[in-house]
């Protein structure tokens, strides 16, 4: 996956992952890739356990904009 979302000042890579992983899981589920979506959600849950942060539970307007996953064209 390529980095399509540059870091905003004040946001760490982990904070960005906290918003990107659920979006990626949703997109995979829409494509019928349920096993992959389950793996992504397990990673998201584990990330929240290992590195809790205010962005993990903050409302969307406080955590910043939620980027949408854009798959690479083949």
What tags apply to this protein structure?
single chain; 74 residues; mainly alpha; 4 helices; 0% strand
| Overall shape | flat
Structural class: mainly alpha
The total strand number stands at: 0
Q: What percent of the residues sit in helical stretches (DSSP H or I)?
A: 55-70%
Tally the helices. Answer: 4
Low-confidence blocks of residues: 55-64
The rounded distance between the terminal residues' Cα atoms is 12 Å
Return the string of H and E elements: HHHH
Largest sheet, in brief, is: none
* Cα-based radius of gyration, to the nearest Å: 13 Å
What proportion strand?
Answer: under 5%
Mean pLDDT: 73
Describe the structure.
The chain has 74 residues and is mostly helical. The chain has a domain at 13-63. The protein has helices spanning 13-30, 34-50, 54-57, 60-63. Helix 1 runs antiparallel to helix 2 (34-50). The longest helix has 18 residues, at 13-30. The chain is flat and about 35 Å long. The two termini are 12 Å apart. Mean pLDDT is 73; it is low at 55-64.
